[in-house]
Write a structure and sequence with these properties.
The protein has about 130 residues and is an all-beta fold. The protein is about 0% helix and about 50% strand. It is built from no helices and 11 strands. The strands form 2 sheets. Strands 2, 4, 5, 6, 9, 10 and 11 form a 7-stranded mixed sheet that branches. It has a 4-stranded antiparallel sheet with strand order 1-3-8-7, with no helix packed on it. It starts with a strand and ends with a strand. About 35% of the residues are buried.
Amino acid sequence: VQLQASGGGLVQAGGSLRLSCTASGRTFSKHDVGWFRQAPGKERELVAGISWTGSSTYYADSVKGRFTISRNKGGRTVYLQMNSLKPEDTALYLCASTHRDPFDTIVEMSARGYNFWGQGTQVTVSS
């Protein structure tokens, strides 16, 4: 699966962005998808994840109530709606996916568990 992340940009604090992660070659069928971010000097962190069934989601505490992850029914795109953005949300946002077995119902939460990665899209939030 090849992943393409898009939708980043420069936004003022309090603003919104919607990131898209699009799969090419294959769909996200049976794949968990996660959005990670990495800021300079900081470790890569999972911001939000959604299971292949769509029934399990994960949000980092820092984004709960502000970010929403969703996947379209066509199976090729996963979105990250980001509202009430803060300067500390500034980072390179990367999407990743991993194929799951049918009994894996809880979304993968470890970066090491993801084996397909996109190139990332930069999000910059000004104060």
